[in-house]
Amino acid sequence: MTLLFSSRKMRNMFYLIEKCSHVFEAMLDRETNLSNELETRLVTARYTIECIGACVFGIDANTMTGEMQDNPFSRIAALTSPTKYAAFIRGVRNVWPSIFYGLGLQLMSKQMDFFKKLITSVMNQRQNKPSGRNDFLDLILSWRLKQTIDGDSITYIKSGGRHRVSLKADDDLLVAQCFVFFNAGFETSATILSYTLYELAKNKEIQNRVLAEVDAYMERYENRLCYECVNEFPYLWAAVEEVQRLYPVLGVIFRETMENYTLPDGLIIEKGMRVHIPVYHLHHNPMYFPDPEEFSPERFLGEEKQKVNPYTYLPFGQGPRTC
């Protein structure tokens, strides 16, 4: 999986992101001509689904140009939108996994069946072998040919030893990997984009500063975006990081201890115990972030960013299983 996110491959895929951005701009022009009110979460989801389709699966999802009702990716996105019942069942699974699995409960079985048909169809179009695009589906197909998935080596903190995990790559596992990649990719990105637009709309001064930074960049590079542009938008990126502090997509991180651990006060966390890390509480704790309810990108700008205490800002988790 890590190989997919190398600098070279990200650079090679950037033109796809740029293409999706132009389509997104045209869609916004078209939609705003029809109405002055747009459902931001829906609009950003259409954009992120298009990006995932192009960069990950090598197909045109048509979520920003075609009819949404008949679009297979849009149907999957709609199926994965959380309902109150699904949120409750997910909570049961996270807090009481033995009860969840003991009762034979399931999450997203219909979505998985639909997604399996879609991915199998795309695999067949590529004749079940890598196409040379170097996208995520090529990686999946290479695993299918090898019949194994080799994970990254994990270094154990105490012993310093390294361990690599290999799994048998059957079709169910490969489709599950595709589903997780799609769902996690479009959902989290669309949510962060929505909240970023929301906070910029509420804070006109910050919005103007972000626009000035982007306009200055576009003027320097003759209205062309390049892969390195991310490094030239420090204030915009600080605003996005502040959004992730205020609205973490992972409100709680769940982990299971692999061995006994003694806290400084003597309390022992026993092996096998599930640990819930309250990310939302950490991000909104005035001990770590003064005036925590205030939207202030300056927290993540320049020297101020270095003052953020380690492990108090966890938008993507930490450690070997960081997102």
UniProtKB/TrEMBL annotation:
Molecular functions per Gene Ontology: heme binding; iron ion binding; oxidoreductase activity, acting on paired donors, with incorporation or reduction of molecular oxygen, reduced flavin or flavoprotein as one donor, and incorporation of one atom of oxygen
Name by which UniProt lists this protein: unspecific monooxygenase
Subcellular location: Endoplasmic reticulum membrane; Microsome membrane
Membrane as UniProt keyword: yes
Keywords (A to Z) from UniProt: Endoplasmic reticulum, Heme, Iron, Membrane, Metal-binding, Microsome, Monooxygenase, Oxidoreductase
Swiss-Prot/TrEMBL cofactor(s): heme
GO annotations of cellular component type: endoplasmic reticulum membrane
Residues bound to heme: C323
Gene3D superfamilies: Cytochrome P450
Organism listed in the record: Spodoptera frugiperda (Fall armyworm)
EC numbers for this chain: 1.14.14.1
Membrane-traversing stretches: none
